[in-house]
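Retro notes, structure queue

What went well: the backlog is down to a handful. What didn't: a couple of records were mislabeled last round, so from now on we paste the full input next to the output in the thread. Example, using Copper transport protein from Ficus carica:
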Amino acid sequence: MDGMDHGMNMAAPPPSSSSMNGMHDKMTMHMTFFWGSNSEILFSGWPGSRTGMYVLALIFVFVLAAVVEWLSHCRFVKQVTGSAPNRVRAGLVQTLLHALRLGLAYIVMLAVMSFNAGVFLVAVAGHAVGFLVFGSAVFKKGDGDKVASDLPPMSC
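Corresponding output:
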């Protein structure tokens, strides 16, 4: 078994000079949900330990989640039955909207992956409020409002 190592050294790596200075010991990556405003969401050092910045981060995640729902239910492109260039233009607009919606949804997902329970709750609340306002029947004017959105619904 002497030659069976194949480069898989299981020993702990030696401490680096930066961890000896205590720079990496300040922030730990959580792998379970936790409560508290001392966290990192999306960017290194943001929001940090400042409560005001944490509240701003929560508002940011809420708005992003609501915008994802808005993009899922909006209607920017009218039914195109004309010439091929118009259909191509409409298809390109739909593709750009889809890419934008997907990119924002991934940003919300990455924020939730901070495992901060407050971020999780505001992301769910943002999606719920966004669906209530833009997707549910509560704010629809009537039967003429049953126009499908430009984009297909996001599937799991």
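Agreed that this is the format going forward. Reviewer comment attached to the example: The first helix runs from residue 17 to 20.
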